[in-house]
Amino acid sequence: MTESPGGSANVPSRDRRRFPGISSRSYEHPADRSALVALRKLSGFDTVFKTLSGLLPERSLRLLFLSDSVRVGEQQFAHLNDMLRDACYILDLEKVPPMYVNQDPQPNAMCIGLDEPIIVVTTGLVELLDEEEMRAVIGHEVGHALSGHAVYRTILLFLTNLAMKVAWIPLGNVAIMAIVTALREWFRKSELSADRAGLLVGQDLKASMRGLMKLAGGNHLHEMNVDAFLKQAEEYESGGDLRDSVLKILNLLPRSHPFTTVRAAELKKWAESRDYQRIMDGHYPRRDEDKDTSVSDSFRDSAAHYADSMRNSKDPLMGLVRDIAGGAGDLGGKLRDTVFRGGGTRPDGSGGANGSNGTGGTGGTDRPEGS
Question: Which of 33, 21, 88, 37 minimizes the C-alpha distance to 282?
């Protein structure tokens, strides 16, 4: 690893605000932050997970990228090297991680390694994004390195491999996969944290939005619109009925990343928040205060976030959960109306929740509204 950028020659290519001594807690999603604070408080944490890392093909991956990819530097992909050093300068990362470009048409980037993280970007990503979009992505990966998110990836790899080996043991695989599911939830929140770090580095919300849109729809920006893209996220959250709510959960469970429209909406919401403005004004937690962070306070913040998300969610399932928690009457009727929302026929043959008789412009077919 090379030393941290220090001189005036290494300042960002355009004037951006820098955050000396910034703690990753300042941009981490509450659920991600609570998990990391708890892990950092564990005695022997570093030793245990570095040992776990040794059981995984991390060293092999390092050698593979060194031997079969292009290492970014002053003589190779110099523009990416400048962006990497800029990102480390802005987030005040002590050392600049090595970065490699790997031949792969699939747009992707990752940060791996516990002791000495490395960043890998694919040629598909380099060819897809413009300079400002790429700057946000590199900031995203530097954010992963600053937070120590490779911990999640390492434990996930270890437990996933273990689950395959103990699949023959009754209930053994079930227990491990339950832990894997929880870790995936943490990991998805860590991606939202890293998106925020990318915005702090690029300091250009439009560029961050464009990058996410390209990841979803390719290099066709002239065919896409940010407002329409964000509207998709709102429609995804609030649309459908209980069946769709269940399908959303099933679709999300195996994923390591949140859906792209959701990431865009979450980042825009954070960019408009007071938390983001305070950071930009220079008011943020410092790294030297991390050791004094309260685990219980972090978990309370996480719990408060989830409670607030449930209160404000437009998802039909979350609405039903709120009704149950609030002791709403006629739950059976509410459940029936929610499931058959949109004019579908109820089990008793009556119309749907909108009061229709189930016969619409499609000649009385039993489809939800809008299908």
Answer: 21
Distance CA 363, CA 371 (A): 13
The residue among 367, 360, 332, 364 whose CA lies nearest residue 348 is: 332
Residue pair 97/85 in contact by the 8 Å Cβ criterion = no
**Which residue has tokens 């990841």?**
215
Beta-strand relationship, 109-112 and 2-3: unpaired
Q: Where are the alpha helices (DSSP H) in the chain?
A: 30-41, 45-55, 58-68, 78-90, 123-128, 131-147, 150-165, 172-202, 205-217, 226-238, 242-252, 260-271, 274-280, 295-312, 316-325, 331-339
Kindly report, residue by residue over 9-28, the tens digit of the pLDDT.
454 556 899 999 999 999 98
Give pLDDT tens digits for 322-345. 555 555 545 455 545 544 554 444
Residues present in the chain in total = 371
pLDDT per residue over 97-153, tens digit each? 999 999 999 999 999 876 688 999 999 999 999 999 999 999 999 999 998 887 666
Average model confidence (pLDDT) across the chain: 76
Q: What is the distance between the alpha carbons of residues 285 and 23, in angstroms, rounded to a whole number?
A: 6
Residues with a catalytic annotation lie at 141
* Confidence band, pLDDT 50/70/90 cuts, at residue 367: very low
Q: How far apart are CA 58 and CA 113, in angstroms?
A: 7
pTM of the complete model: 0.72
* 3-class SS of residue 131: helix
Q: Which residues lie below 8 Å from residue 122, measured CB to CB, with a gap of 6+? A: 101, 102, 103, 104, 105, 106, 107, 108, 109
Q: In terms of C-beta distances under 8 Å and separation of at least 24 residues, what long-range contacts does 363-369 make, across chains too?
A: 368/240, 368/241, 368/341, 368/342, 368/343, 368/344, 369/341, 369/342, 369/343
In this structure, which amino acid lies at residue 261? T
Dist CA 262 CA 335 (whole Å): 26
Q: Which of 114, 103, 123 is nearest to 144 (CA)?
A: 114
Percentage of the chain beyond pLDDT 90 is 42
Burial of 200 (0-12, 13-18, 19+ CB in 10 A): buried
For the chain, what is the radius of gyration of the CA atoms? 23
